[in-house]
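User: Can you help me understand a structure? I only have the sequence.
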Amino acid sequence: MRVKKVINNNILCVIDSHNQELIVSGKGLGFRRHPGEFIDPARVEKTYRMESRDKQRKLRELVEQIPMEHLELTEELIADIKKQISSPLNESLVITLADHISFAIRRKQEGITFQNPLQGDIICYYPAEYRLGQHCVRVVRERTGIDLSESEASFIALHIVNAELNTDMSEMYDITRLIEGALQVVEYYYQRTFDRESLDFSRFVVHLRYFAQRLFQGKSLQDSGSVQDEQFRQMIIRSCATHYKCARHIAEYVKNTWNRDLSDEELMYLTIHLKRINANQK
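Assistant: Let's start by predicting it. Here is the structure, written out as tokens:
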């Protein structure tokens, strides 16, 4: 390993034998080291590497700015999260979550607190991730003695969902807003409040989550144009006219709010899910 940059006495940015950049740590590893020197890999206690060069650069910058113990704590939290989340998580979670947790600890020490305006929505739409956020807050308190606010659990939950969906945080806020807006349209249309604790409601929210992700990433489901698909679409419109009309109202809401159009295929899936949630919750 060849030293690229000395970050501090215990952390180095190095280049390995495959010409890949790594962040390595170990007691006294960087003491009196200089760029271009070689180090003994046996002295390395921990290694950090991102697949993406851009993310590796961000990781290097982050390690220069936050205490190493905050990164190590985040690693521990992500290991706990992965035990509960079956879907793969974007590798950038270690960067975004470490950055957030370190900043939250520093803000708390300075007496500054933030409230998450989407906290109620997050608890409702991402319950599993919110519970993991609460777990993270408890672990931070146990390890550091810093008692983060309940809002931090919802912020952490968004970071986890963001890593699940491979989105950025601004897009994650839009996805959450779209889910809330679509549900308001649905409940107003049917003149009823759905059971937030039911399995069918959870399934519908999951559909809205991935629907919104496709919409904002420009990957909406598209029609094949086949005669069979058109026949199926017309059959759904006839047999589920009430639910199709509700799906059209959701499409109008999306168009008015984000100026994005829904494909016929997306309308069909929305219609089918609307029929399902109504059939099972009567």
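Now, to help you interpret it: The longest helix spans residues 169-190. The chain has three domains: 2-50, 68-166, 170-280. Let me know which part you'd like to focus on.
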